[in-house]
Amino acid sequence: MSASTVTQKSTAGPATAPHTLVAEFASADALVRACEQVRNAGYTRWDAHSPYPVHGIDRAIGIRATRLPVLIFLCGATGTTIGVLLQWWTNAVNAGVQFPWVPTFLQGYNFIISGKPYWSFPANIPVIFELTILLSAFGAFFGMLALNGLPQHYNPLLRLDRFRRVTDDRFFISIGLDDPKYGSATRRLLEGAGAAAVEIADDVKESAPPRWFLRAHVMLACFLLIPLAVIAYMRVDKQSQPRIHIVQDMDNQERYTAGKQMANDVFADGRSARPKIAGTLAREDFTQDPHYYQGRVGDQWATGIPMYHPELQRLAGGAAEVNEQLMRRGRDRYAIFCSHCHGLDGAGAGRVATYVVQREIGFVPPKSYADPDVLVRPVGHLFNTITNGIRTMAPHGDQIPVADRWAIVAYVKALQRAQAATIEDVPTEQRSRMTQPK
Amino acid sequence: MASIVHDRDNTIETPGRRAPLVTGGHDLHGVTEVVCRVAESRSAPGAWYLTMGVSAALLAALGAMIGYLFFEGVGVWGLNNPVGWGFDITNFVFWVGIGHAGTLISAILYLFRQKWRTGINRFAEAMTIFAVMCAGLFPGIHIGRVWLAFYLFPLPNQMAMWPNFRSPLLWDVFAVGTYFTVSLLFWYMGLIPDLATLRDRAKTKLSAFLYGLFSMGWTGSARHWHRYERAYLILAALSTPLVLSVHSVVSFDFATSVLPGWHTTIFPPYFVAGAIFSGFAMVVMLAIPCRALFGLKDLITLRHLDNMNKVILATGLMVGYAYTTEFFVAWYSGSAWELFAFKARAMGPWWWSYWIMFSCNVFVPQIFWFRWARTSIPVMLVVSVLVNVGMWFERFVIIVTSLSTDFLPSAWDTYWPTWVEAWTMAGSFGLFFFMFGLFCKFLPMVAISEVKAVLPHDAHAGGAGGHGH
Amino acid sequence: MASHGHTIDIFSETRRFERTCPSALIAAVIGVAALAAGFVMKPGGADLRQFMNSYLLAYLFVLSISLGCLFFVLIQHVVAAGWSVVVRRLAEQIAGAMPLMALLVIPIVVFRTELYPWLNPTDEMKHLVEHKRPYLNDTFFIIRVAAYFAVWTLLSRGFLSASLRQDANGDAAISTRLRTLAAPSLILYGVTVSFAAVDFMKALSPMWFSTIFGVYWFAGCALSGFGFLALVAMWVQGSGKLTRAITKEHYHDLGKLMFAFVVFWTYIAFSQYMLIWYANIPEETRWYLVRQSGDWWQVSLALLLGHFCIPFVLFISRHPKRSKATLFIFAVWVLLMHWLDLFYLTRPPEAPEGLLAGTGGGIPLHLLDALCIVGVGGLFWAWVASALARHSLVPERDPWLKESLAFENY
Question: What's the complex ipTM?
Fold first, then answer.
């Protein structure tokens, strides 16, 4: 194959037109030497092809250094910026609520964890670093592909059988027939430069990818959109059915229920509902006092605080009426259990309430105690609300002992009174302090 | 194809003359043939079918174990309070570590111009990807409520609250995720020219289509090579700090705590050294059967194995340095708890695992001081297996001993894995070897174009033309 | 190994100084004068303690450079590197100053009570120091220091003299032997440097501990060693020697190594800082608390910016590493930053109390710091320059030299 052969590939099938002149070389050194000659001859629309990167070919062809590093640097800087902003916005500040146009889930939420400051830069570095690397790598890979014009699934050169050895052991120069310098001298130049063979690669006129190939891509794209569509639908959809409960954990387990009179082999008498053990008292035995325990008198809400109860008297320091000590206790419990929603003044603007209202998370905000509806409620009703909850408010009966709930009720009444207070209510000796500017 | 196998030992390097990296006197076409015939052959060695069978069975076991875990909950594992991490995180750290050698070979050795990497980088990178897949499995399943695994990702919950970015566990997601992605890109980029080789040699329409699709129309253009090489160099430069960061972040999972035996500042570099150590052992373990089964002894030569064994020795010494430093500083710190934790490792209920770790990782590799051991296939096979055992136990020792005996003696408890954990672990090996087996059979196991670039200069001319198509 | 570069004949190069380098004598005189002036006159009302603090800082700075070059020599041998042969002799000679370093450590040993609180523990640290007594005791300290310098001298002089022997007889077997010896030598090197870091620096705060500390100092040693090596190579070329043998390709590689160790130092420093900051255990955190309180905060910040951010951004590209002028700036810069790093490691007070109260402000820079660096640095340079002048500047018959001369980055 050392003698240079010139062949015109015979074509069959679709109409073709000559496109590129391809010259084959046997070694990398021959390729580099030939490239220098082609470059010196002033060709512009040409390239060299080799099975591996040939040392010195860039200089021989005159390839200018790629701008890829700059692109990668910009991508990396973008990654750094995203890393900083993402962590700052979602963890370190609470600024999103100021902008109503920011969707709730993008608003961010600053919270303290393990005693670290909101903005803990050392702890933010790993994520910043990883995002920098990730985006730089995307820049390197996709940037390389884009600058190289890849993927390019059709190339006239690949229609030549001879050219297939470019990925094996042969070296090629390709010169486009549309090169301004192209002419009859071109072939002589290449042969003179030591080409083992020179051929022309044909291009198919009006080539297009097969139909099924395009259809497959469209179908794939649609398929990939399904999860997104489902997520979007689930975000806006309101459902009355509870969600599907795949894994039960211990939510719905087999158990003996009192109402069903079930048999149980564990006990000698076979009954699952056990009788009261002699000498013990049931919980209900203590709650025979509906006024104290439920805030009810008959079928009406109680209107007075059950100060007759020894436990309440104990909170009041032995007194049988509401006094300052009981009030202080109530204020104390109120601050702990109630103020985060109702606010310290009972106006309904506690930190949590304000927060969720701002974010529109579907939360019924607490009413002000000064609201006319609330003002008319008897104390028993207030007590019941604390115990069992109301609307979005959760029951607090499990958390606050009974007497403390009454103390809170007393304090809430005081807050209501305070909302409607005038200067007359302030003791005379302290009025001057109220009017003086601080 | 007439390849005369030269018996010349290329592990001895005369000063001033670099020993050849490819034996057997191959020219460019010879290299293509050696690598491509594996993928082009319609059959495979019997051992390959055996491996695939066993690993498929183990893979099925993995699926069954995860299914069982899914329905029953983490109670089927032996975890308890205080030992909330056991086999799961041990395996996670083990597999992530295995991956590191691949990146070291493809990136760090590239930056150091270690040309011998070309023989092994492709399948070491593949190993990285499969190992990281195995690793990624465990954090996903160890959370118990597997269907809530998306909580691991930076997504806001229903209260618009985002995950805590100050937590090392979230850094892990970013580090391992980035690592997997970048390794995949790096690996795939290296594959493009070689897939083009397979495309150009394809005999069937299907293989021509598939290899053609994934080789993206590569024609070996000099302008393409120019950008390709620059991108490759930069990807290598990016992967180098990345690979350091990944195991460092994994070590932060432990070291940011205050637990004795976990909180020590040498953890990041020590974990990285250990990861490279175990990863190289795995590469050696995989290279030995691969080069024998698929006829790659001319490309993955004894010199490659010799060099890898040297890296194993060096990293083994670094790991030994870290073990000793930890012990010394545990005493030097004067912290009673710290010292107790280390005494408990060496002499407590898990003393045997500590000494398996220490002997496999520090004593066993010392045999590689001897050249005969570095070039003896049976010796290196045994050592590489032992090193992997030792490195698995290192993670086990760190996790279990420190968790089981922390500050509060009344809360101490022991840990023993259940059969589910054992089979899950075995199943992860099934996943790994199954993926690796597929890779060996269908993709070029050695980087063809890179090996061609390091052939001796006189082999660079194409063949005399005696091998047409 | 296909090399397309042009190879020059090393024997056509100027490879030697004709006579003793005059700068060596001048440096020696200035060095002795500066140290004597500092020690005797103690300017600025300084006491012996201040002198010793400054001396320790200057000494560790120069020792780091020497140890960094020793590491360079060992690592090049162990991997049978080709590219570095043209600059290896320079590194061998810089590392070869170890006998001088052994001499210069004597003041530190003699006046150790001025430096190391564990010799005179306060009430607060008594308990812990008592626990550490088996390690931190007078006799063992002296034995260890002697052992470090025995090892370092043996290694540096051994590798240097073997290389010089090869100049004479051209025996390629020497390269093979040095390669074999370099591996165990690196183990000795690693162990001694780690413990020396504990003894010279960590023991300044005897209550503090960190497992990574040895690696931290090693990173600084390697960085400053490479920086100094690049400067010496420029100086040698500036005096008209090896003008064609050392090319921008070699500088590029030295630049890459410096850059890599800038990043490695940052990685190690960050690992140590982050873990201690995150776990927030009082006995560890106080060390950093001191360094973040009062005006020391500025030193910490300067280190973060100067030791990492600025060089990282400026020297990430290949171009500044391939130009002598910018590489010169890089090398000087990393040396300055390494000095600052050592200042930050050794100088802050043990206890944060005064700093937290805002009364301990001010960075205790002293005129003696300058005098000591001129003194120790001058003596060091005198040694290195005169050693360079005595022998060929390149291992001229090293079998890998040809590869080094033809070396080209891709």
Answer: 0.92
